Structures are given as structure tokens and as C-alpha cells.
Amino acid sequence: MSKPHLELTGVSMSFDTPQGSFQALDTINLKIAKGEFVSLIGHSGCGKSTVLNIVAGLLQASKGGCILDGQEVNSPGPERAVVFQHHALMPWLTVYENVELAVKQVFRKTMSKQERRDWIQHNLELVNMAHAAHKRPGEISGGMAQRVGIARALSMRPRVLLMDEPFGALDALTRAHLQDALMNIQQDLNSTVIMITHDVDEAVLLSDRIVMMTNGPAATVGEELRIDLPRPRNRVTLADDPEYVHYRQAVLRFLYEKQRFPGKSEKAEAGDEVSTPAEQPAVAEIIQREPGSIDSSAHTDKEKAAVIEHS
Amino acid sequence: MSTLTTPNPLMQLLRRRYPDITGKSLLQSITLPALGIAVFLVLWHLVAPQIDTSLGQFPTPANVWEQAGQLWDEHESEQARAAKFMDMQEARNARILAENPEAETRMRSYPGAPTFIDQIGTSLVTVLAGFLLATAIAVPLGILIGLNRYFAAATNPIIQILKPVSPLAWLPLVTMVVSATYVSDDPMFEKAFITSMITVTLCSLWPTLINTATGVSQVNPDLVNVSKVLQLPFWTHARKVVLPGAVPMIFTGLRVSLGIAWMVLIAAEMLAQNPGLGKFVWDEFQNGSSASLSRIMVAVITIGLIGYLLDRVMLLIQRKVAWDE
User: Does some domain include residue A148?
Assistant: First the structure.
């Protein structure tokens, strides 16, 4: 790694609240190479999303900054495409039109109409959504909508793909499908990815490196773990792999032994009032988020679609 | 799944048109409103003779029905006379041209008084003109207010103060301004029309304005972030992200605005003497014949029905346009 592709240097972030200034992040340093898949993992409220938003340019760091290919990031742009937790598709546009909105904006000068059309189609095929090109987001399931969200982000041909808990709102099976799809796509395109997650298995399966964050306030990088598992990776065979189990354990140890009590670490003694029990998710919830509740939301989406088709 | 098997042709027709509705609810959706209307008519019929006015007793449903027929007849005979008047002119012009092909001929429009039906037409044109003008002002302004919270804070007190002002307070001011500024030898519109229209606009733009601003400011922040990541220019952002996102709220505002516009119009027409339904009511009130109260009641019911129809039309447009319906 001669010169890093993306570099965060001394990033600190404090927000003004009615109770005074609140320091969310403290001196985060991170170097990411081209084509690397990095996961940010940590407990809820530790500021993972804030880091991502700073890289995206949606937030400005109070101190320090972010450099991409030698250029400082200080506003959002399509070269740092974001996949949002809740797909964030325009509900009034079809799947095709949602991707088109991005492609038209990013490639309006460099691509002909026909090229753009092919490019949109290509990206929809990449996520296996070409068959639903003319459906609205309300007519497809949450998992399908998330695929389209990924297709839209990829269609911007980003230098870094930023994913904010992209599969967090999906049921376990759909999540597994999308993780496999993402793995394949990343392998093909060799894109640089920063993904936020609090799913340990997801992090180990997908990443080249896992960045573990300490609990907020004043969260920072706690440990980094390089995942040296050969690709392509297969979740079924890996489940038994001693190395995989070892990586998994290392992350779990960090999250549930070293960072077990948010706010009680030496770094953040001042912030006890923030560390309410509600902010610490139960172990079981993190490892396997209740699929029942998530299932039901996907279900209603499909029901909605059925109603729309019926009327 | 309906177990109701009445061989009623009306029911069969309705069931074919609305296959989703089961027999029982279909029956209820027709009989209950009909029952409501019937009870209302009976009560009206019983109570009306008890109410004395300076023009005799209050009209019963029968009186009103009779006057409605009367108004229709007047309209038809007036139309017949107008047609005859036009035919006569054409015949005369043809004769003049036959004698002298160089001659200039003229057609006068029929000089008769507008009938009740004509007045409905005038009212509709006036209300739509005022409403469209209000929409043209309120939607763009609402978008600006919704997008910029500094602008919103600056305009909010003015909106809150102007919003509850009655049409009756605006009208004299509007009349004075129109009569001073709208001066032309061959005016395209009557001054009374302009005055009524502007009064309607001033009173009806507020709900659309406020709803548009609220709708715009409540557009999903994720979608706004998408727009930022894409670096959409302001105009594309407004057109492709903000406006469609606010459409459901905008339409809610438009429907309220149209309702207010129609209510305001009647008052404005009365005072501005715009030849519409408001003027009809006022003229009948001044006329004071024995049929006047019945004729005013015909106007009252017509105003109510048209107000209802306007709202239904807006609802239909909303279903066509809005993505969440």
C-alpha cells in the first residue's frame, strides 16, 4: 500500500445540542486501499454512520478530514455513491427511472442516449432486477428495492461505494442472498467499499478488513482485523472453517467483552449519561436480528403490491 | 362471496360495475344515503310552513322543485330567442350583401339578460380563474418556503396574519385597485370579473401555500441526500425530488383551497355584481317576489352540488397524478 486510495486523518466530530457540545467522534485515522472492502462495526450509537456521512460529504468533520485520491472531500458527489439503509428510491419513479435519474445526471455529457440505456439495463441485470424495471418501489419487496438501491449506486461508477447498514432492514434469508450478490459484484468490479454493519457474520464474510469502533461518545477506532480468507468465499463451507470461526470470535470478543458496557471505557468516562441500557443491544439481537418483525414488514410490502396490481 | 341474491336489475348493474363490493355493503351504500336525503326532505317539508318570512312562508321542497323547472324553462326560451335573434341578423346580412357585395355587415350579440344557467357558467369560469391564479402563486412560493427555512421564518408571520382575512374585507380594496388600474377602452374582461377573481385568489391561496411548504419540508431526508450525492442542480432537485414528494400534500391543500374559493366566490359576486350565482342570489333578494325565496333555495342547492362536484373532480385528478393513491 504505497499511497492510500482513501484516507481519513484525525477526524473528530462534535454536534451542538441544547445541553452543549456533544463529541461523537474522536481522532479517527483510517487508510483504505483501492479495491478493499472495509466494514465498520460497533454498537448502536457509536457514530459509524457519522463516519460514513463524513466520507460521503453529507457531514463536515469538526476537525481533521478525508482525502480521496489526493483530493479533499468537502461536499457530496457521485464518485462516493451511498447505499442507504432504507433503499431511498423515489417512490414515484419506476425501478428503471430511479437508476436513470442517477445515470442521466452523472453521464449526461459522456454517454449517448443508447449507451445510457444499455448502462442502466446492465446495472439492473447485475443485481438481477431487470425483470422489474417498470415497477414502482411500492410494488416490490424490501430486498428487491435494496437491490435497486445498490444498482443505482453502482451505476454512478463510484470510486468508493458507501453502504450504511444496507441489509439491516431485511429478513435473514434475503440478507444472505444480497450478501452473496454483493460479494460477486465486488469481485467482478473490484470496487472499494465501506460498509457499516452490526452483523458480525456479515462483516467477516464480506470484508477484507473489519474496523471495530469503540463506544461513543468520542468514539474512535478500537481495533482493526484483517480477514485473510480466500475468495470466492462460501458461507456454508466457511461456517466450519476454523479460521472463519476465529475471526468471528475476535470480533465478538471486541464487541461483547472489551466494549460490553458502552460509556465505561477509559476513553469516555465523561459520557455516562449517554450509556443507557436501551442503547446497548442484546447479544442475540445483534447476531440474529428478529426475523419475525422484519419478515412482517416485507410481507406488507408484497401485500401492498398485490393491492396495487389488483386495483 | 355475496349471499344476497335479489334479482334486482339495479343491483346487478352496480355489482357489475363494482365487483369488489359485497352485496350487503352495496345495498347499504345506496339505501342509507337515500334514506338520509328522504328524512331531510320530509323534515324540510314539515318545518318550512312553520317559518314565516316577510315574503310569505319559507319555501317547501315542492316550491323549490317548481322554481327549478321554471328557471330551466326560462333558460330554454331565452336560448330560443337568442337563436332567433341571430338568424334574423344573418338573414338581414345576407340581404344586404345580395344588394351590395361591398357592404360591411355586423353581428350583434344577443342583448338579453343572462339566465340561471349562464350565471352558473360565469361562476364556474370565475372560480376556476381565481383558483388557477392562486395555484400558480401558491405552489412555487410554497416550494421556496419549504426549501429554505430562513425564507420560511421570514414569511411565516405574514402568511399567518393574511390567512384568516375574510373576502368581505379584501373586496373594497380590490375593487378600488382594479377600477384605478384596469382601464381600457375595449376590456377583455369585465371589471366585476377581475375583482371577484382576485378576491377569490387572495382568500384561497393560503391552504395550498401552507400545505406545499409543509409537504416540501417533509420530503424524506434520505431522498434529499440522494439528490445531494447526485449533485442534482437546484431546478432538477425541485422538479424531480421535491415536487413529486410533496404532491400528496399539495393536493390536500388544493382541495381545501378550491372549497374556499367556491365559498368566497359567492360573496364576492354579490358585492362586485359579477353576473354569476352570487349576483343571482342578490338580485332575487332585492326583487322580493313571492317566488324569490324558492329561487334562492334553488341557487343554494346548486351551489352546494357544484361545490361537491368540484371536490370530486379534484379527487379524480389527485388519483391520476399522485403516486401514493
Answer: no
**Interface contact B244-A56, CB threshold 8 A:** no
Residue A84 placed within a domain: no
Give the single-character DSSP code of A219.
Answer: B
The reply to whether A156 touches chain B by the CB within 8 Å rule is: yes
- For the cut 60, the answer to whether the pLDDT of residue A308 exceeds it is no
Q: pLDDT tens digits, residue range B105-158?
A: 777 888 878 888 899 999 999 999 999 999 999 999 999 999 998 999 999 999
Domain assignment of residue A179, given as a range: 6-79+158-310
Q: Structure pTM?
A: 0.76
CATH classification of the domain holding A35: 3.40.50.300
Give A84's contacts in chain B (Cβ within 8 Å): 222, 225-226
Q: Sign (positive/negative) of CA torsion B323, A292, A204, A238?
A: negative
A239 is a domain residue: yes
Going by C-beta distance under 8 Å and a sequence separation of 6 or more, which residues neighbour residue B38? none
Interchain pair B223, A88: CB under 8 A: yes
**B228 contacts on A by Cβ (under 8 Å):** 57-58, 76
Q: Report yes or no: A43 and A257 within 8 Å, Cβ to Cβ.
A: no
- Predicted interface score ipTM higher than 0.90: no
- Does the domain at B116-321 match CATH 1.10.3720.10? Answer given as yes
